[in-house]
Structures are given as structure tokens and as C-alpha cells.
Design goal:
CATH class: Alpha Beta
Strand content: 25-35%
Number of helices: 1
Number of domains: 1
Helix content: under 10%
Radius of gyration: 15 Å
CATH architecture: 3-Layer(aba) Sandwich
Bound molecules: FE2/S2 (inorganic) cluster
Number of strands: 5
Oligomer: single chain
CATH topology: Ribosomal Protein L9, domain 1
């Protein structure tokens, strides 16, 4: 099975997750309020941080949640739509596509 290679979804204490390709570093200044909990769905609370490793097959696509409201976290289930309507926010998923099939 041909894959696009491993990716890392890293949460940084905010409502975003980032895909960091191998060999690349992402630095982001974070100004979120420290007292505000993001992981309200209580996903993997037994771990010190939520990190998801995954890969995408050739011709495949995966859609990852960045709003922390999904019932299928870390995958998006569309819950961001209801969140955006209720709050005026504009969060949406991270969509990762694999390479085209040969
Ligand atoms: S459900 Fe969270 S981004 Fe879609």
C-alpha cells in the first residue's frame, strides 16, 4: 500500500492542529487564555498531550477536527458548523490528501 508518509497532528493548547511534514518546524505565538480548557470532549485525558500520528493512502483523503467538538475526534464530523453558528466563530477542519494514484 502506497502512502503519503507519516504526518503528525500536534495540538498547541489552542483550537488548532497543525500538520508538520518531516524535517519542517512550525513556530507559532500563542495568546490563548491559559485558564480556558480546549479539550472539552475529554479526549485522551489520561495522556499529558494529544498527539495523533496518521498517514494517507494514495488517492485518499482524511478530514481532521480543529474545533475540538467532534464526536469522532480526531476526525471531523461536521460539529464545527453548529459551533460556528452558535458562536460566530469560523473554525473548520484540516483536510489532508494523499498523492494521486498512479
Ligand atoms: S468537527 Fe471539528 S472541525 Fe469539523
Amino acid at each position: 500500500m502506497k502512502t503519503a508518509g507519516a504526518i503528525a497532528l500536534v495540538t498547541l493548547g489552542c483550537a488548532n492542529a497543525f500538520v508538520i511534514p518531516a524535517g519542517r518546524t512550525v513556530v507559532r505565538a500563542e495568546t490563548a487564555r491559559a485558564a480556558e480548557k480546549i479539550n472539552t470532549i475529554e479526549f485522551e485525558l489520561d495522556k499529558p498531550k494529544v498527539v495523533t500520528m496518521d498517514s494517507v493512502d494514495a488517492g485518499g483523503k482524511k478530514v481532521y477536527c480543529r474545533c475540538w467538538k467532534s464526536g469522532t475526534f480526531p476526525l471531523c464530523d461536521g460539529a464545527h458548523v453548529k459551533h460556528n453558528e452558535a458562536t460566530g466563530d469560523n473554525v473548520g477542519p484540516l483536510i489532508v490528501s494523499g498523492p494521486k494514484k498512479e
